[in-house]
Amino acid sequence: MSKAELHRDGRLGILRIDNPPVNAIAPDLVTAMDAALTAFEADTSLAALVIECAGRTFVAGGDIAAFDDPSFSAGPFNALLARIEASDRPVVAALFGTVLGGGLELALACHARVATPTTRLGLPEITLGLIPGSLGTQRLPRLAGVAKACEMITSGKPISASAAAAAGIVDKLAEDHALAARELALHLAGSGAPIRRTRALIAPDADTAGAVIAEARRAAQARPWLPALAAVADCLAASVQKSFPDGEGVEARAFSDLVRTPQSRAMRHLFFAERAAQKIPGLSRDAERRTISRVGILGVGTMGAGIAMCFANAGYPLHLVETSQDGLDRGKGLIAAAYASTVTRGLISEDQAQARIGLMTGSTDMADLSDCDIVVEAVFEDMELKLSVARKLGAVCKLGAIIATNTSTLDVDRIARETGRAGDVLGTHFFSPAHIMKLLEVVRGKDTAPEVLATVMELSRRIRKTAVVSGVCYGFIGNRMAEVYMRESEAMQLEGAVPSQIDGVAENPAFLGMAMGPSRMLDMAGVDVGARTVVEWIKSGKGPQDPAYRILARTLYEHGQHGQKTGQGYYRYDNRKAVHSDDTQKLCRDLAQAHGVTRRAAIPDEEILERLLYPMINEAALILEDGIAYRPGDIDIVWTAGYGFPAWRGGPVFMADEIGLKTIVARMDHYAAALGNEHGYWTVAPLLRHLAETNSRLSDWQRHI
Ligand code: COA
């Protein structure tokens, strides 16, 4: 069956698109739409045309996968849009679902648009490092104004149907969009009113567009690593200064340049990696799942409170348990304060906040968790405590309930065994603040039942987390890699680099572009939090038996210098502002001397970058070899969604391929020779060396299951 066909409904032609799952514009769909439009053009008995879609949404965009094809061209689709717009009989788009990218551009080429009230409309191309390539930059400003177009294109955020109606993008809102579109099409055909072609309009705010465009250029200059932003400004300028065909040329040239940039390739890689991460090898999409209607949270500290909010935000009734009434009150206080700040920032209304708080009950008796379908245990990160809690939960939780232990490093298998029902158990690693950070590592234990994993992955989607499955190991995917990154950051501080130089390199987009460098991040998260787990890891005999291993963090911890909250960590804090700390520098000199570390007058920025990044990439290869991550893309999602790794670099694995694996292996070997490799820190992962030798990409590596 063709993906688009022309039907007749009385005097109307109905061009119906049917290209599951999201009616994305692919080359064969364009061919089918072309034929359907030709049939409409030939049948002069039809008074007007309605364009509608089967399935769950109107067209949700161009087929992103097609952009990787070097022969890809938006030309045929754009020519089709021009023919639709040129029609001398009215064409109306019937919108519902997510009208994104090429979908909105198709709608803009029609003469009128009807949408259901729940429709979302947007041009998200910027999130793929692109600009709209099918005249979105030319038609949207003409219809809705340059300011609105600029906001929508540079943010990439979809807007509601009512906002679209207010902006003049949608002409009518109706629950029954198909019927309303037919009525409007017949009305337009019967009224004899001139056809309203978007290309012929002049932007309603053309007079003030200069200021908007100047501001867009300034914003683009501030983020030069996203060249799409400057292109948006150029295209918007063309939409008010040039003819439509000339503007079309400006957009086409910019799009074809951008689609080839490493930034856009990286961001497209993340789009598909994020979706691939939801798939569990060996588990079909319709695998059995357990029903979750009531959630229990055990331990309402900072983490537990944030986790509780995630569930309440998604409408789940919750029961919170703490060891004492004081503890429970403190936890509820944290939740109330966090909601109050959400209300102050205008993100939700006071009523919404109260409704969410109203979903929570609390007590100090674990037995009250017995009617919950899942219990997330978020007690302090201490193995003995976790084990004792696991024993109790194993007994208290009802048959079939899932037990999730929230941990950033601990052995989930050991905790699971302690419950006496390991099949029901898995780990969750929420990132702090849990109600804000997107990432959730879901830790699959040796015995975790497949339907338990499938249920929690589905639940993650409902609570709007980007979930990635990790196997059990110290630190899982994210913190295992962060460990080597921190190790080198601290080693270089002992060798003479100050934290501001190292953080500067990590944060500088010319080098890496992390949201926050390693020392600033540890100071913010609390040096004690990280150091305590490192101490335990070393004590357990599984961690590195190197006396100098992360000795700086361990010593700061012992000295009570826990970062921002104590006013002193890697940096000193002057009213929350990180400033150089002479004390920490003295400590670095003392530690260097005690551990026989040679200090240098200066460490070049290039070395800092390589020593932060390459061991992480090497660890990523080990994580893949060990089967801790299913796929290379999962690692990129963990780092971009959880650690502030820049999306435009595609994550550490994608970046490794851009740098070249041969280069990375050669530099690892270089550092092994230059710095010594007594503890194996510079031993190249066999997988990495093999892929480098065979000119392969780490991103493309697949485990053979
Ligand atoms: N091109 C190609 N494939 C697409 C696509 C597109 N524009 N949009 C979605 N898909 C695919 C996804 O890869 C996924 O495939 P899979 O099931 O094989 O993994 C499937 O459609 C469903 O998408 P998913 O995101 O899982 O569904 P959802 O209901 O959560 O969200 C959308 C639907 C449309 C909101 C979301 O997919 C989206 O934002 N798509 C991108 C839209 C876009 O950027 N368009 C502009 C492109 S220039």
UniProtKB/TrEMBL annotation:
One of its GO terms (molecular function) is enoyl-CoA hydratase activity. It is found in: Peroxisome. Keywords: Fatty acid metabolism, Isomerase, Lipid degradation, Lipid metabolism, Lyase, Multifunctional enzyme, NAD, Oxidoreductase, Peroxisome. It comes from Antarcticimicrobium luteum. One of its GO terms (biological process) is fatty acid beta-oxidation. InterPro entries: 3-OHacyl-CoA_DH_NAD-bd, 3HC_DH_C, 6-PGluconate_DH-like_C_sf, ClpP/crotonase-like_dom_sf, Enoyl-CoA_hydra/iso, NAD(P)-bd_dom_sf. This is Enoyl-CoA hydratase. Pfam families: 3HCDH, 3HCDH_N, ECH_1. Pathway: Lipid metabolism; fatty acid beta-oxidation. Transmembrane segments: none annotated. Residues 295-470 form the 3-hydroxyacyl-CoA dehydrogenase NAD binding domain. The keyword Chaperone does not apply. Residues 475-573, 608-695 form the 3-hydroxyacyl-CoA dehydrogenase C-terminal domain.
